[in-house]
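Most newcomers find our protein records easier to grasp once they have seen one. Sequence and backbone structure share a record, each on its own labelled line. Nothing more is needed to start thinking about how sequence determines fold. As an example, a complete record with its sequence and its structure tokens follows.
=====
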Amino acid sequence: MGARDTLINGLDPSRQAALARLWQVLPAMRLVGGCVRDLLVDRPIADIDLATPEPPEQVMERLRAYGAHVVATGLQHGTITAVLDGAPYEITTLRRDMETDGRHAVVRWTQDWQADAQRRDFTINAMSVDQAGVLYDYFGGQADLAAGHVRFVGEPALRIKEDALRILRFFRFYGRYGHGAPDQQAVQAITCGVALLDGLSVERIWMELRRILAGPNVAAILRLMDSTGVLARILPEGHTLDRCVRLLDDGAPANALLRLAGLTTHTAAVARRLKLSRAETGELAALSRAAPLPDVSMSEATLRRLVAEEPADVLAGRIWLHQAAQPRTAEENAAFARLRHRVCGITVPAFPVAGRDVLAMGGQAGPEVGRIVGLVRQWWLDGGCHADAQACRAQIALYLGTKAAQS
């Protein structure tokens, strides 16, 4: 332990003010977990997690008496949320695990800070800071953080057996905070316990995999996941690690879905099994679609047509994936880069007319309106998406006139 006043001073003033108010009500409360870790390495703080020895009912009573808005967000786990100036602050009563089944834990409240820290996954996540700025580090987390060492609190095999999600969390935190060789005890425990991943919900698996794929050092992390058998376990449809590594080496953006598309050719099956959201499934399908791909020899008009049909970032993603499909020469890589630059530099053309224009020009409501709009849109696309509203309305008039003449 040591005086670390600068840790609290590292928070923005509004959060410092909110914490000062909370400490008036709960003087024994501490900052815990990820925010302490990130304050130590001067990284941006996303969420502030707090812990206190008082039982949750007492925490709620005190905060309401103070006038704070309180929400019982996870009372069975000892967690409540205090809302100050519109910002939420999660406060959890100190706990110790009584029973675990690999997914859930039966907990009991405690006043023992070290016992609460002992149930956390890694030493770098088990530190806390009180209102005086004193850092409490029971398991050497500060030294591990400085050394880039991601180490389980206690016996790795036991901690994984308690909650198999810790396997994936190890890779995520090692990608962000680790350097040098990974902890061999952890790697051995993960390799031996990889089958425990089968007991996790696919939603929890995708939550962690998405964070891993969007994070730093992904190539090294995926190789480690492959060597421990984790990658094959969470992607039983098969994986294309070499292609994904080439995608990363080429400098593709940190888009989890793009990287997932590079990691497997069975994207539809993976999306279904991992229960991706509708938006995620749609983006993954668009990236993987066997559709016309921009080519270096394409004219500007042809590229404009493609960008009018699909977002430029999706087209650029497909170019990244095509580039990573096999090893490329420096000249080929440069050509792909120029093509992406051309695609992303095109202003997305907007089709300037709609069904209401057909109706305003005398068209009859019904399926015929959609048919004429489709014909005019195709004419507009064929012309490189340059025709303006006046020219498109002239085409509408032509189709309406043709139909009238046929009648």
Notes: The chain is about 55% helix and 10% strand. The first helix runs from residue 5 to 9. The radius of gyration is 28 Å. The mean pLDDT is 92.
